[in-house]
Design goal:
heterodimer; A: 270 residues; alpha/beta; six-stranded parallel beta sheet; 6 strands; elongated; B: 93 residues; mainly alpha
Chain lengths: 270, 93
């Protein structure tokens, strides 16, 4: 019985060893390789040493086996952490498919110490009602256009979260009880702060079309099903932009012309 | 099939699996591409070597090999920590 148990443990341990080897070869970046190597090798050696203890069935061997397991379980995470930390400073590249590097910008480059982002405007306050952060609209930019959209949506009881790269505006919005996040909307971390993954629509009310593409691209990696609404000033951009972002594009001058025409037509009908 | 040969067959299979794992890790050690990749591969190789020694303790019936495995694990930890410090120092200069 104990022989069978020992053999099973030994085989399980060897399987974990093999998996660690495969993981180290197959995983796409260092940090994923490490997670394969350290977890599997620790579990692997744990099982094998346990198998030795069961096989011999002597107190002396069992004691040494348990001591070895405890030692490996204590040291493996420490070593892995030190290597990972060192490699992060060296700038070992992350996998291409990485969506967010949550450590970026949080390390002091010189002292290598970890610090919280000390900007309270960059994170959404914990006091914001959770119910307002689902199915809401994320508005990027609270200038002349964004302000009007925001006011109209709020009047219609649709909850909004504003992303704005002007600190004074963020402060002003928070004072008037509107959720707002400070930062650049083309950074996934900022979009995640705005709870974009739970949002229903993304309105980009800033006119710069180059950044807009990147913002929508990042937004889609955070929330693939988000509906995007953007604006432009350039006629030739309209179709290409609409195809590229797979959303609705409004041409400022066109909408203005439509509204003015309607006014004139209404005057003639009277 | 006698009982003893049953155990030795299984330990032979386990040893082969560990040997393949070491070869895979050695591939990463040679390939890199970064220094930390190599350190991780080397760390895995020494841990696997400790595992092989422990399996050999079963295969040979000599419990002393368990102590050897413990020592290999210990040295591997010290080596990895030293490498980590070295990697970190290297970039801050």
């Amino acid at each position: 019985m104990s022989e069978a148990l020992s053999a099973a443990l030994m085989l399980i341990g060897a399987t974990f060893g093999l998996l660690a080897g495969a993981g180290v070869v197959r995983m796409p970046d260092l940090f994923m390789r490490m997670q394969a190597a350290t977890k599997a090798s620790t579990l692997g050696i744990g099982c094998i040493v346990l198998a030795v203890a069961v096989h011999f069935g002597e107190l002396g061997v069992a004691t040494r086996a348990v001591a070895t397991i405890i030692f490996v379980f204590l040291t493996a995470p420490v070593a892995a952490h030190m290597i990972a930390r060192a490699s992060y400073f060296v700038g070992v590249p992350l996998w291409d498919g990485t969506i967010i590097d949550e450590l970026r910008g949080h390390y002091d480059r010189r002292t290598h110490r970890l610090a919280r982002p000390d900007d309270p405007y960059a994170v959404l306050p914990a006091t914001v009602d959770v119910n307002r952060l689902a199915g809401h609209v994320v508005i990027v930019g609270y200038g002349r256009v964004g302000r009007r959209i925001g006011a109209a949506l709020t009047a219609n009881a649709i909850s909004i979260v504003v992303v704005e790269d002007n600190r004074e505006i963020v402060q002003e919005l928070r004072d008037s009880d509107i959720s707002a996040v400070f930062g650049n909307a083309s950074e996934p971390a900022v979009l995640i702060q705005a709870h974009l993954h739970q949002a229903r629509m993304l309105i980009i009310a800033v006119p710069d079309t180059v950044d807009v593409r990147r913002m929508v691209e990042m937004a889609r990696t955070v929330n693939p099903r988000i509906a995007a609404v953007v604006r432009t000033h350039r006629d030739e951009q309209l179709t290409s932009l609409e195809n590229q972002i797979a959303g609705k594009v409004f041409l400022g001058e066109h909408e203005l012309a439509v509204s003015m025409t309607r006014y004139v037509l209404e005057a003639y009908e009277k | 099939m006698t009982f003893v040969s049953w155990v030795s067959t299984l330990s032979f299979i386990s040893l082969s699996m560990m040997a393949v794992a070491i070869m895979l890790a050695a591939f990463r050690l040679i390939r890199g591409p970064s220094l930390p990749d190599r350190v991780v591969a080397l760390d895995l190789i020494s841990i696997l070597a400790a595992g092989i020694t422990a399996i050999y303790a079963i295969a040979s019936g000599q419990a002393v090999f368990l102590d050897v495995a413990t020592i290999i694990a210990l040295v591997s930890f010290l080596g990895t920590v030293a490498f980590a410090r070295y990697v970190e120092k290297q970039v801050s200069q």
